[in-house]
Specification:
single chain, 341 residues, alpha/beta, Inosine-uridine Nucleoside N-ribohydrolase, Chain A
Length: 341
């Protein structure tokens, strides 16, 4: 029994190193602190991206992460300008932004990012948003400069940029192709994507660029943890917090984004926030599945198959965990960032 308990402890430590990776994968991971993070977002489609970014800035303030860049997979200069507003307001005006060029975007009706830009309340740092670098090229530049097996990629939008990165050839930044570069430099990826327990749900991030999602899940060469639709759907950030907890900031871009997204008051699901939480606090708030493989079928449904040696996982929660997670969000998000203290 003692031998069995020791084995369980070793497996637990190995899992903890990357949140949900297998022991074989975690043994070669660097334990870099602060954690180098790249955030890939469809900012402007749903306001949970803005709340997730708020948490990342505050984690940067605390020295828990080193936010290397923001990658945008949302069409339109308004989304890029909103990221610039957020970077400037939170005290990180030089944080690089990469964009996805030549993409389609079928969700232009609810663009809170553009709405906040149109308010003309917040300063910006950049002036030319159309000529920001291609995200997949910026990925290559940043990854090549990082220690091996150190970077965590958080993707809360479409898989467009990551699919393009997988297909990149060697260039001035690295002699490795995209898949090789990811394998060498990325520790793991944390995604908000799919719906594992809802067999007939075609999740938004998947279907908006279905070929890219299929490619990423099929070819990703590093551990991949996804927070599926059902996790964030069960945890809602309350309107009463937006209305009552930000009196210290008469003009707050994240608060204005929340107000612009839907008619107040409304409570909004925390899908993207959970993918961030997985990186900041692995094995503390959510339950991870066994190792396996996630596939995306021709209509955009996601399927998980347990598989020994598989490097893909999904997250789960119960009611007790959901309350604990909400309490965490309610503690962190209303706090002043370092730039406003």
């Amino acid at each position: 029994m003692k031998k069995y308990s020791s084995l369980l402890f070793v497996c637990f430590i190995a899992w903890l190193l990357v949140g949900c990776s297998s022991k074989t994968s975690s043994e070669k991971q660097s334990d870099i602190r602060p954690i180098p993070v790249i955030f890939d977002t469809d900012m402007g489609n749903d306001v949970d991206d803005a709340l997730a970014l708020d948490i990342l800035y505050k984690s940067m303030d605390k020295g828990d992460i080193n936010l290397l860049a923001l990658m945008l997979n949302k069409k339109g200069e308004g989304a890029a300008k909103f990221l610039d507003i957020m970077n400037t307001w939170y005290g990180y005006p030089q944080l690089p932004i990469g964009i996805a060029k030549n993409i389609e975007d079928g969700n232009e009706n609810t663009n809170y990012a553009q709405s906040v830009c149109d308010l003309n309340l917040f300063p910006t740092t950049l002036t030319d948003y159309a000529n920001l670098p291609d995200a997949h090229i910026l990925y290559r530049k940043l990854l090549a400069a990082q220690p091996d097996h150190s970077v965590v990629i958080i993707s809360t939008g479409f898989s467009t940029n990551l699919a393009r990165l997988l297909d990149t050839p060697a260039d001035e930044y690295s002699d490795l192709n995209g898949k090789e570069l990811i394998k060498q430099k990325v520790k793991y990826m944390s995604l908000m994507a799919g719906a594992i327990k809802m067999a007939d749900h075609r999740e938004f991030n998947i279907i908006q660029d279905l070929p890219a999602a299929q490619k990423l899940f099929a070819e990703c060469p590093v551990p991949l943890v996804t927070s599926p639709f059902e996790v964030g759907n069960a945890i809602k950030y309350p309107a009463k917090s937006i209305e009552n907890d930000f009196g210290w900031a008469p003009q707050h871009p994240m608060v204005e984004a929340y107000k612009a997204y839907m008619q107040m008051p409304y409570d909004r699901q925390t899908w993207d926030l959970t993918a961030v939480l997985q990186v900041l606090h692995p094995n503390e708030y959510m339950t991870c599945s066994e190792e396996g493989k996630i596939t995306v079928d021709e209509v955009g449904l996601t399927h998980f198959v347990p598989m020994k040696g598989g490097m893909q996982y999904y997250l789960m929660t119960n009611e007790e965990q959901n309350q604990k997670i909400l309490d965490y969000f309610l503690n962190i998000i209303p706090q002043k960032p370092k730039s406003k203290q």
